[in-house]
Amino acid sequence: MDPVLSITLLSIVLGALIVLVFFKSYFSQRRSDVQSIAEPELQPDHKKKSVKSSQLNSKKHHNKTHSHASDKDQPRKHHPLDVNTLKGHGDAVNGLCFSSNGRSLATACADGVIRVFKLDDADASSKSFKFLRIPLPAGGPPTGISFTDDSSSIVVATNALSGSSLYMFGEEKTTNETKQQSKPEIKWENHKVHEKRAILTLFGATASYGSADGSTIIVSCSEGTDIKIWHGKSGKLCGSVDTNQLKNHMAAISPNGRFLAAAAFTADVKVWEIVYSKDGSVKEVSSAMQLKGHKSAVTCLCFSPNSEQIVTASKDGSIRIWNINVRYHLSEDPKTLKVFPIPLPADLTNLHYDRLCLSPDGRILSATHGSTLQWLNVETGELLDTADKAHDGEITSLSWAPKTIPIGNEQKMVLATASVDKKVKLWVAPSLQA
């Protein structure tokens, strides 16, 4: 055989053997790799199922153990004094007030509708109060509301770019065959009552002092420096005063229609007397006295039910109760009867109240700061109770029912609050006992 051919054949055989050995080693290693990869995949899957099963059992056990603490499973907890929530408002509720007999509660809502809830003798905790809807004329939203001579007549303040307006709605009774229907309609209206300035507060009172004839007097306080007095039934302007301060914050009238007081971002509170003629009409509004004692701006005030005291709250962190039943015309100054610290948390940046209102018996003071509602003992200044988040937004108005309202089998004093959260809430008065 040719030596060259022999070498060539030997080389081919050796090469084939080398290739064969190489591929055998490669496939053997590949099989090992595949097995090493497949086994971990199977093991985690088994472990994953085991872990999932363990977590599921643990979760079931956890839920079963702590199901009472779940917020979704449990109804929302209410404050013990919260007895009812009047829903159905389409926007922020800017004001509310009770009728003099306590049987009706009117609310002023930014959705442009006045609602008059008929409480009558129904339980205050009832969920089915009937209410009357009174649509407002097109324009700005309502900012204040007050009943006039009876529970069927209401004065509403609205704000628009052109200025503030006052509307008085009364019921026009019409007979429709066999039944009688009540249709509220505008009895009088006044526009640009404070030029282009907005109305901040609107309060009404039954004029019963001196020679007053028992008519309802309405006080509108503008964001400027002027305050005006109106005859509730006729809409006639009875008088006006100027605080001569930088701007007004609020104004209120005493329940007997005698005094008018204003808080105007100063430490002093000015008080005027409404003087009535023999025929019962308003004769004049004269300066009566000033309440001096606070060290910082007075943010809110309210009169006592007997019209003889004023309660003020200031940014100096104090509450003062004043006796205004003095002979001011003989230069006798009003006296500070009591001074209490405002019982709000000390970490608040602004330690003050936004609104005050006294219970019909004059023994409980309700006060608000943002969405916080508090009740205080007027005699001792003791904090009776607090609702930290009485509403889901700022409280815009509060008012005590002038008379007790049935709750269950008892008659209770009831406070109403309105808020930007589109709700009105009814609260029962806390106990004065320690």
UniProtKB/TrEMBL annotation:
State the InterPro entries in the record. Answer: WD40/YVTN_repeat-like_dom_sf (IPR015943), WD40_repeat_CS (IPR019775), WD40_repeat_dom_sf (IPR036322), WD40_rpt (IPR001680)
TM stretches of this protein: 6-23
Mark the WD repeats by their residue spans: 86-127, 291-325
Q: What is this protein called?
A: Transducin beta-like protein 2
Q: Which UniProt keywords apply?
A: Membrane, Repeat, Transmembrane, Transmembrane helix, WD repeat
Composition-biased stretches, type Basic residues, lie in: 58-67
Organism listed in the record = Dipteronia dyeriana
Renumbered to this chain, region (Disordered) spans 38-85
